[in-house]
TrEMBL record, chain A:
Matches recorded under Pfam families: WD40 (PF00400)
GO cellular-component term (any): cytoplasm
Lineage: Eukaryota, Metazoa, Ecdysozoa, Arthropoda, Hexapoda
InterPro entries tied to this protein: WD40/YVTN_repeat-like_dom_sf (IPR015943), WD40_PAC1 (IPR020472), WD40_repeat_CS (IPR019775), WD40_repeat_dom_sf (IPR036322), WD40_rpt (IPR001680), WD_repeat_MORG1 (IPR051980)
Name assigned to this protein: WD repeat domain-containing protein 83
Cytoplasm is among the record's keywords: yes
Annotated source species: Manduca sexta (Tobacco hawkmoth)
Automatic annotation (TrEMBL), chain B:
Biased composition (Basic residues): 832-859
Compositionally biased spans, kind Polar residues: 616-626, 635-645
Biased composition (Pro residues): 344-353
Domain G-patch: 146-171
Organism per entry: Manduca sexta
A GO-annotated cellular component: nucleus
Protein name: G-patch domain-containing protein
Length: 299, 859
């Protein structure tokens, strides 16, 4: 494996970056700041493309649509906003959560947004119609929802109530797994067979989706009280996690060893996002984001 | 002729003669004849608008150089006798008369002023209060000549100035109307109404005379026009004087405002005048009140103006004249008359009889909110409102804190006083709890102790004593109670009812309730809001003990996994491009509409849901009895896996009947939530019978499979987990679900969340989850098993029963899982319930409470 180095560093001037997200093809990225704004960047060229303002409180998460024409963001102001990328105008505002909306994702066709909130609910918003109420609200969780992953037919929700819940639309089933620790972030491997769960016991746990058995545990990073995120690299060979110590840990998926450690800075690295197809990683710490990778992208 | 010839000859011609006019020749060009009406002509027939000048003044010809008269310049003449006047040329000087005519540019004619034309309604003008108060006389003299259309119409209808409008009334009616004059503020009785002057008295007497005369003339039926409407005009108060005080009038005697004109422009209208800038403020005007040394204080409240002052030198003869006259006249205030009628006597009512237990207390004596009231508790219809903290504790099976008898409020000992000063709640935190020896509520108390210890009327010791006596022997209480003589009959009766109710309500319910509650996992630090929220990972998300243990050991998988059916919204499926699983959706939708069901079961239910029956229940409410009384609702059961139901059944209600019922067709999973109509039920049953055979065989197969799974997955974990023998007992427990009481919790149960309690309990005595997954699979299949999925002949009943007996264990196990695994899905269930109960309005509020409570717990 070639050496991963910092390719670019962007000072976002957004106070604290709550989350950083690649867009669907990995050429742009979104940063959600605690200054209530979302910024669209080209991280490879360190270019600021657009700023989206309209939230009434910290923006906690954002996602770009599959055609990169819309952005959906959620905020501590209990609402989610659908943005038009080019005009920068909010198209629709979804109010329905009773508390801060912590995470939001589009579905595969970006026809629906799924948001999770501190109010223990997961809400489904129809983007296609003009309905302002959630189509479906999942109230299974007994505590805050920390993260959501949406695949073509599944919704994975992680909650502070120590449960991971997988809602399978095809099977019309809800599978809940008790993990025993607060799950700060859950992602799925790219083959869709495993959950990668960041727990607040300073571990990342790899679970088999079908059986619910634990496959591996990754230790080395420090969690503290942070909502650390994790990511899986493009080849499903590495698990990447931020750390409260300001480093980024690369774990080998099979051997669970730390294969690489990137030092971002002194402040904790909470949010990170991996390029969907290439070896690029975005990490956010305080008000700066860094793009890591093996080589510069040819543009 | 000859002459003419000779003339021709004599004349000498010069120039060329015109061509002779030929008669037959038609002249080619006719001379243009202008029509006379195309000229603009003035009233005198003179032509207007000369030349190219086509608009504006016609003066182009009138007084100009080119005119016939020519232009005469203005001359200046001045002589000794006739001094030249200064003349201003006005535009009219250069205009013709027509321009000043009616249709001209500057019309000049007399018009009535709009004020007098009657076209405009005259506004009630405010008259400044000059020396002569009221409307100026001139204003009255010079009246508007023209009248408004309305006035004209009224006139035509026979109205006169000064009359009111409306139907004519008789004299008496008129008088009555006058008496009932609208008065703002206090209405002075007619006898006491002030009469301003003697003239008024005279008038009064006259009116009385009129009254008499009119009463005598009633037979004539004379009708009078009603009185004119007097508008009540509120005058805006635009000064800052006290009410009724108008200060020194700013109007001089001549009526113009002081400092309005004639004085320096710098003088302001204010009474406060700055003489020199920032130096001195001189105040003009009249002060309010009377000096201490002034002898005469008769006129202090009269509005003063300059007319009250003496402007001439001389004696005060007029004043001295006036006073004695006034005093002589009637010995009353000026403007008032001694009333002839005596004042109406104020009716005196006797003081209200004080209630028996009233104890006078000083108004200033402060009482703590939490001090016990000596008055009996409010009597409310339902006994549950009388529950005190102790009562509730007793219901929960708590040993009441050994509390010292409450000292009466008068003799609060020092310690308590100190506590009160410290702001502690004396009643709720008794001294015994201070040592914190009783941290948790012991829940295994027998009922007998409770009856002894529990005191519903602890606040009133005498009453409590009576109550205890009542409990011992109901008849004896009133016979020998010496202090009971102090009570009235009514009070006694009421107390009797109270006691009855209390005896029923506070009966120990340890049997039912004891096992529903568990210790709090964390000490409740409600008193200290600043204490950090402890991380309690116990029972997070309603995880069972097995789950937590498994997770702690790192044995994830079957142990920690739990599946529940989840029905995604159809639109969600559409958006995710996933075909909607199953066709159950429609059914549920149908359920949304309240179907009018004429089933016998609905009637059975109605006996509970009716308001009357509800209150009846309440009045005869006693713990488990009412539940027993409940008619069994066989097909009410909802055996689908996700519906965890309230089981408020006690063990004693468990009967063999219940077990039998378990195997009746109703228990087979149907997926129906609604009550079935009778017809439907029959249909269902016949179909069920058909299906039964296959189903059973399937379950047998699965049972075998289950063993296989068990041997694979649970080989290690099963050894550690003791397989509880409870399984057997639980088998008997199952019918709880069957005969479950679906009526809303009532009375003291109203706020208790049985669902939660149940599920918690259930989770604990669940069999090892090894087989769970598979069982759930079975369960799901079962629940999904609609009638259409099964084919083949139906199994005969006797065979079916035999099979059931064999598979009994399986079925019960399945049931067990139903109830336990459903804690995941129980928000959904709740929702369903909520929906159901929305229809029943009267429970709505209760439910809200319940839900909110539930949420709180979830957090």
């Amino acid at each position: 494996m070639s050496e991963i180095s910092v390719l670019s560093t962007i000072k976002c001037n957004q106070q604290t970056i709550r989350s950083v997200r690649f867009n669907v093809d990995g050429t742009y990225c979104l940063t959600c700041g605690s200054d209530k704004k979302i910024k669209l960047w080209n991280p490879h060229r360190e270019l600021l493309l657009k700023t989206y303002g309209g939230h009434a409180n910290e923006v906690l998460d954002a996602a770009g649509s599959c055609d990169s024409s819309h952005i959906i963001s959620c905020s501590a102001d209990k609402s989610a906003i659908l943005w038009d990328v080019t005009t920068g105008q909010p198209i629709r505002r979804y109010r329905g959560h009773a508390s801060s909306v912590t995470c939001i994702k589009f579905n595969e066709e970006s026809s629906m947004a799924v948001s999770g909130s501190i109010d223990n609910t997961v809400a489904f918003w129809d983007i296609m119609s003009r309905r302002n109420e959630p189509i479906l609200v999942l109230k299974d969780a007994k505590d805050s929802i920390t993260s959501i992953q949406v695949t073509d037919h599944e919704i994975l929700t992680c909650s502070v109530d120590n449960h991971v819940r997988l809602y399978d639309i095809r099977m019309a089933k809800m599978i809940s797994d008790y993990i025993g620790h607060i799950i700060t972030y859950g992602s799925m491997t790219r083959d869709g067979q495993c959950y990668v769960l960041s727990c607040n016991d300073n571990t990342i746990k790899l679970f088999d989706k079908d059986s619910g058995e634990i496959l591996n545990t990754f230790k080395g990073h420090e969690c503290r009280d942070l909502r650390l995120e994790n990511a899986v690299n493009e080849k499903d060979s590495l698990i990447i996690s931020g750390s409260a110590t300001g480093e980024v840990f690369y774990y080998d998926l099979i051997s669970s060893n730390v294969s690489q450690k990137l030092v971002h800075g002194p402040k904790p690295v909470v949010s990170l996002s991996h390029h969907p197809t290439d070896c690029y990683l975005l990490t956010a710490s305080e008000n700066e984001i860094k793009l890591w990778g093996t080589k510069k992208m040819e543009l | 002729m000859s002459e003419s010839d000779s003339d021709e000859e004599n004349f000498i011609r010069y120039g060329t003669p015109l061509e002779p006019f030929e008669e037959d020749e038609v002249p080619t060009k006719r001379k243009y004849q202008q029509q006379p009406d195309q000229y603009a002509v003035d009233e005198h027939g003179r032509r207007r608008f000369h030349g190219a000048f086509t608009g504006g003044f016609s003066a182009g010809f009138g007084n100009t150089v080119g005119s016939a008269e020519g232009w005469t310049p203005a001359t200046f003449k001045s002589s000794r006798s006739e001094k030249a006047q200064r003349t201003n040329q006005r535009p009219e000087d250069f205009m013709d008369e027509e321009d000043r005519g009616e249709h001209g540019i500057a019309p000049r004619h007399m018009q009535t002023h709009s004020e007098f034309s009657g076209q405009k309604r005259t506004r009630p003008r405010q008259y400044h209060d000059g020396p002569i108060p009221g409307e100026p006389v001139l204003e009255q003299l010079v009246q508007a000549v023209h009248e408004t259309a309305a006035v004209k119409m009224l006139r035509a209808m026979g109205w006169r100035q000064g009359q009111g409008t409306g139907e004519r009334v008789s004299g008496q009616q008129k008088k009555r109307a006058r008496d009932q004059h609208k008065v703002y503020g206090c209405y002075i009785p007619p006898e006491m109404r002030p009469v301003s002057s003697i003239a008024c008295i005279i008038e009064n007497t006259q009116t009385e005379d009129d009254n008499d005369s009119s009463s005598s003339e009633v037979d004539y039926d004379t009708l009078f026009a009603p009185d004119d409407y007097e508008p009540y005009i509120l005058h805006r108060k635009n000064d800052r004087f006290g009410l009724g005080y108008s200060g020194l009038s700013r109007h001089s005697v001549l009526g113009n405002l002081v400092g309005e004109y004639g004085s320096q422009p710098s003088s302001s209208r204010s009474h406060l005048v700055m003489k020199e800038k920032g130096r001195k403020v001189s105040i003009r005007g009249q002060a309010f009140g009377v000096g201490a040394f002034e002898a005469e204080d008769d006129d202090i409240y009269a509005s003063e103006d300059m007319s009250h002052y003496d402007f001439s030198l001389g004696g005060t003869d007029s004043k001295t004249d006036r006073k004695p006259v006034r005093e002589k006249s009637n010995n009353v205030l000026e403007g008032f008359v001694k009333s002839s009628a005596p004042l109406p006597s104020v009716p005196s009512y006797p003081a209200p009889a004080l209630p028996r237990d009233y104890r006078p207390a000083a108004a200033g004596a402060r009482r703590s909110r939490f001090e016990p009231t000596d008055q009996p508790q409010r009597d409310q219809g339902l006994g549950r409102h009388e529950l005190t903290a102790e009562a509730r504790g007793a219901l929960l099976g708590e040993t009441p804190l050994t509390k010292q008898p409450e000292p009466s409020t008068k003799t609060i000992d020092k310690e308590e006083a100190l506590l009160k000063v410290l702001g502690r709640n004396v009643n709720f935190v008794s001294k015994d709890t201070e040592n914190k020896s009783i941290d948790f509520i012991p829940i295994t108390d027998s009922g007998k102790e409770l009856t002894k210890v529990f005191k519903p009327f602890a606040s009133d010791r005498k009453k409590q004593a009576r109550y205890e006596r009542y409990l011992v022997d109901k008849a004896v209480v009133w016979e020998r109670g010496g202090e009971s003589d102090s009570l009235t009959e009514w009070e006694r009766e009421r107390e009797m009812v109270e006691f009855e109710q209390a005896a029923k309500l506070y009966k120990p319910l340890s049997g039912i309730m004891g096992d529903r509650f568990t210790h709090a996992s964390e000490p409740d630090e409600a008193l200290n809001p600043l204490s950090a929220v402890a991380k309690s990972s116990i029972n997070y998300g309603l995880a069972t003990r097995e789950q937590t243990e498994a997770a702690a050991r790192g044995v994830y998988g079957v142990m920690t996994r739990r599946e529940a059916p989840w029905r995604p919204d159809s639109l969600v499926c559409k958006r995710f491009n996933v075909p909607e699983p199953g066709g159950v959706r429609q059914e549920e939708k149908k359920d949304d509409k309240p179907k009018v069901s004429y089933s016998i079961f609905s009637y059975m239910e109605s006996s509970v849901h009716d308001k009357d029956s509800f209150t009846k229940e309440q009045s005869t409410f006693s713990g488990s009895k009412s539940l027993q009384r409940e008619p069994p609702k066989p097909s009410q059961t909802e055996p689908t896996s996700n519906t965890d139901e309230i089981t408020t059944k006690t063990d004693e209600t468990m009967s063999s009947k219940g077990i039998e019922r378990l195997f009746k067709p109703e228990i087979t999973p149907t997926g129906f939530r609604k009550r079935l109509t009778v017809a439907e039920l029959f249909l269902k049953e016949s179909e069920m019978n058909k299906d039964q055979g296959k189903e059973v065989t399937e379950t047998i197969n699965k049972f075998d499979k289950m063993d296989l799974y068990k041997s694979i997955f649970l080989s290690d974990s099963e050894d550690e987990e003791p397989i509880p023998d409870k399984n057997k007992t639980d088998f008997i427990d199952v019918p709880k679900n069957v005969e479950r009481n679906t009526s809303p919790p009532r009375g003291i149960f109203a706020n208790i969340n049985f669902d939660e309690l149940n599920s918690w309990k259930r989770n604990d005595d669940k069999p090892p989850t090894g087989t769970k997954k598979d069982e759930e699979k079975i369960e799901e299949k079962d629940s999904n098993s609609n009638e259409e999925q099964y084919y083949g002949p139906k199994i005969p009943d006797n065979l079916k029963k035999r099979l059931e007996a064999d598979v009994g264990d399986v079925v019960t196990a399945v049931q067990e899982i139903d109830s336990s695994s459903s804690s995941d899905s129980w928000v959904d269930v709740k929702e369903v319930k909520k929906k159901k109960k929305k229809k029943v309005k009267k429970h709505k509020s209760k439910h809200k409470k319940k839900n909110s409570k539930h949420k709180k717990k979830d957090r």
